Structure to design on (222 residues):
């Protein structure tokens, strides 16, 4: 069974710092990998989707990479801002089902 | 607005009662999903449906039931058989072209 792990569980950084969030998965037979943001008490907002044939995707200050062979993805956030404070989750899709990590709770201090 | 609407946002239930959570979408997506989220844990799949009039159990289906009579709607019933129903419930749809997953705002159920 696919297992998804996110490290670290929590991260606190000063404003302006560049940071990397990690996501690993146990089975490389995936269709997609998706990164989400979740604010307290809210649903998940899609940030980036990487299809299995792609290596990375970029949106604004966010860049996500995918290495299927090693079972890893990273989410790079440039020039972090207090508004980036949230929980970030990754999910992989395999055989019409999605498997989620437990998330990294990010706090960006002004 | 296009999207996924979950209702109610907050729901309180007495033990022994069944409750139904609504999920409506106007994205024209075939696949719909129900997840449960508990503090500090990842999302766990309750039920999913790939097409109208068809659905499959997820990893934690016991104590839950669903129906999929219309493409737009995928309601979830939390029955009295669910031993620990207090949680945050999330409905999602999957876009057919890209496989991107979209979520509603969630429903928080509290059992008193």
């Amino acid at each position: 069974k696919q297992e998804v792990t996110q490290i670290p569980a929590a991260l606190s950084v000063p404003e302006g710092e560049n940071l990397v969030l990690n996501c690993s998965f146990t089975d490389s037979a995936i269709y997609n990998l998706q990164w989400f943001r979740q604010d307290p008490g809210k649903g998940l907002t899609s940030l980036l989707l990487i299809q299995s044939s792609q290596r990375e995707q970029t949106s604004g200050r966010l860049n996500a990479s995918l290495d299927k062979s090693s079972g890893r993805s990273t989410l790079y956030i440039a020039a972090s801002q207090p508004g980036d404070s949230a929980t970030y989750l990754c999910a992989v899709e395999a055989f019409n089902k999605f498997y989620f990590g437990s998330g990294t709770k990010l706090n960006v201090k002004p | 607005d296009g999207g996924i609407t979950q209702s109610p946002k907050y729901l309180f239930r007495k033990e022994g009662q069944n409750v139904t959570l609504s999920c409506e979408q106007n994205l024209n997506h075939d696949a719909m999903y129900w997840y449960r989220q508990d503090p500090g844990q990842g999302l766990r799949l309750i039920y999913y449906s790939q097409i109208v009039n068809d659905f499959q159990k997820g990893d934690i289906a016991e104590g839950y039931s669903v129906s999929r009579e219309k493409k737009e709607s995928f309601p979830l019933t939390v029955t009295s058989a669910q031993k620990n129903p207090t949680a945050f419930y999330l409905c999602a749809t999957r876009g057919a072209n890209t496989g991107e997953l979209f979520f509603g705002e969630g429903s928080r159920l509290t059992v008193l």
